[in-house]
Amino acid sequence: MGTKKAVILLFLISLVLSACDLLNNAEIGNPDALTTPVTATLEATSVAPQNTPDFEVPVTVTPAAAALKLWIPPEIALRTEMGAQLLAEQLFAFNAKHPTVVIHVEQKDVSGAGGILNYLRTGRGVAPSVLPDMIAIPADLLPTAANENLIFPLDDALEPTALDSLFPPAQKLASPEERILGYPFALTDLPYLVYNSHALTSTLPLTWNRLISDTERSMVMASGGPDGALLALQFYLDAGGTVVNELGEPALQMEPLELALQALQNGRDSGFIVEQSSSSSTLDQSWQVFLGGGANIVRTSADYYLSETTVGLPIEFTVTPGIDRPLTPFVGGWAWAISTSDPVQQALAQELMLELVAAPNLGAWSQSSNMLPAQRDALAAWIGDDAYSGFVEQELGRAQPLPVDPNSKLFTVIGDAVFQVVSGSKTAEGAAEDAVAAMQS
């Protein structure tokens, strides 16, 4: 087996098994226990020359090799086998440029007792040497991490035009304040409609009432899951609703919420939203109803759609119609952030970050990982389905960051109201009244 293949295999195996949780396996009161050497999950080694090497740049690690530590959540590191392999190859290429650097990759969840942020909080004063130099985290957590001094802004490291190629929501996620807190590399959960182009041969309307007025059209949605809440939130904000009151507290307003829920009730009453939507809580469930012919339109997201095999299916994609215009799509994202305070390590980590987000690298990795890149040039590097990439480029160009935490009470309350309306257990007015009251309790 060639060196490059061995390195990639080592990377994949180590990510599956996960590297040792140093802080988790040691007592906080015992600093020596926290300095146990980490097991390298991607490490270039010198080998004897081969007759037919399958790599171009041999890598030799000297005894004085420096370490560059990355912590990556499993939903990024192992999203797909091909994506993991490409990431390993890109790290190997960076290693080849820096033969005195050994890259350590650990797979860690973002939150929880064993998560990235918790380890950064508890480990900095105890065993900073085992903490990462660079991390991948949800982009909406960048302000929290920065305010707690867990990550370090990139203003001095990036050129003034470094964010120009990012899609608008990614630019906002990168710099929610006056500082550049991280570099978004992927945008998630872009919502849209997919429809059967054999059953529906004309372009779908861009307004909700026109969409639901044709009895030949039918849609299935996951009304019992997060996407139901997201759809209602899109309608709610489109109707002029806000997610905070005058005191800055999370709140819902009666009139725009009732209007949003009434749109869904009208869709249900007309038969447009099919009955199976009441028993669907995941995008996979609603997709299966669509594939089985239970509806000729399905509400989905880019993350789910890209993970499915759609070659040969008679499908097209379009925006979600709103009250008088298409609804604004809301997205989340993932970002690289620098988590070391050491200037030398910062410079090395920043160089690696810029290498990973270079358009060819990010384009290849994102397509192979079934994720939308946060960068226009990276999306342009995708190979194949130009119609789809053109559509999502348009949608990402007008998208906004999700304005509420999907784990928040507000999001849960809206989701409950959607399910009640779509299942027919409450009217739009009744569900809206209960939701507004729930936010005030």
What does this entry look like structurally?
The protein is built from 17 helices and 11 strands. By secondary structure, the protein is of the alpha/beta class. The protein has 2 domains: 3-188 and 332-380, Periplasmic binding protein-like II (D-Maltodextrin-Binding Protein, domain 2, 3-Layer(aba) Sandwich), CATH 3.40.190; 197-329 and 404-440, D-Maltodextrin-Binding Protein, domain 2.
Order of helices and strands: HEHHEHEHHEEHEHHHEHEEHHEHHEHH
Shape: globular
Uncertain regions: pLDDT < 50 for 5+ in a row? 1-10, 13-59
What is the total tally of β strands? 11
Structural class category: alpha/beta
In short:
The chain is built from 17 helices and eleven strands. It has 441 residues and is α/β, with parallel strands linked by helices.
